[in-house]
Design a protein that fits this description.
10 helices; 15% strand; 11 strands; two-stranded antiparallel sheet; alpha/beta; seven-stranded mixed beta sheet; Spore Coat Polysaccharide Biosynthesis Protein SpsA, Chain A
């Protein structure tokens, strides 16, 4: 059976991340200080100094440079975020009644899909009246995404452009994939991301809500890259609220294990 490791990136210390299933590992990024037993993006080969611009990508870079060399090429590696957790299947509507806890409904190492799938993406957003390019410009008031196409190697430009002219978006820079495919993704991603970052800084685009504009650009690239892989599936995710994340609550209980908590999930986007 393939080994599964999911790294949960966070910009703050949260006890709940230590209460997740053992294959989901707390991964501290950014300026915060974390326990010594946590993985962080500050050691070994890293680009932690760029975290304020690229968000979770500083963690993905660290895994690429320092982790996958110690894994089998067919092992599964993935990421999630401290507020967003993988669920065990694709849900098309809310669970109205369920005795399950959210913990019971997280993606499990025993999930049969893990043995025969190369890539998992999060449940897609399908825009009804706009393309990915139009959505990006509407939100970020910038043509940086259109410009970013030119930063890719020529063999990928037309396909990326076609993806951006479509209406299907796999958001959040979240994925699970085989190690060798993760390596291929990073080989293309980070030279491109570096050019995107330089462009954004030179044109004073990284400010206010757009401070992490390179990370938002990468969200569209990640959607494109993994959607090109034929043997893939999509999974739903849960969005954790403040009750789940509270360090005070997690001193006494694991809120993820409270029965009936799954009925609030999954997170489903309707556009």
């Amino acid at each position: 059976m393939k080994k599964l490791e999911i790294y949960c990136t966070t910009i703050k210390y949260l006890r709940v991340l230590e209460k997740l299933p053992k294959y989901i590992k707390p991964f501290g990024i950014g300026l915060e200080k974390y326990p010594n037993f946590w993985t962080t993006d500050k050691s070994l080969v890293n680009i932690s100094s760029q975290n304020k611009y690229i968000g979770e990508l500083s963690g993905i870079f660290w895994l690429w440079k320092n982790k996958i060399q110690h894994m089998d090429k067919n092992d599964l590696i993935g990421n999630c975020h401290y507020r967003k957790m993988w669920l065990n299947k694709l849900y098309t509507e809310k669970q109205k009644t369920s005795y399950l806890s959210l913990y019971d409904s997280l993606l499990s190492e025993s999930n049969n899909m893990l043995s025969n799938t190369d890539v998992f993406q999060v449940q897609a957003i399908n825009f009804k009246n706009k393309t990915l390019l139009e959505d990006f410009k509407e939100i970020h008031k910038s043509d940086a995404l259109l410009k970013s196409i030119t930063f890719l190697p020529e063999i990928f430009r037309e396909k990326f452009s076609t993806h951006l002219k479509g209406n299907t978006f796999f958001p959040l820079n979240m994925f699970i994939t085989k190690v060798y495919l993760f390596d291929q993704y990073c080989e293309v991603l980070f030279p491109w991301l570096n050019k995107c970052l330089q462009y954004c800084l030179e044109n004073n685009l990284c400010s206010g809500y757009n401070l992490r504009l390179p990370a938002f650009l990468t969200e569209r690239f990640t959607s494109f890259w993994f959607s090109q892989i034929e043997n893939r599936k999509t999974l739903s995710y849960a969005r954790l609220g403040n009750f789940y994340l509270s360090n005070n609550v997690n001193l006494f209980i694991n809120p993820l294990k409270i029965p009936f908590t799954f009925r609030m999930y999954p997170t489903i986007h309707k556009y």
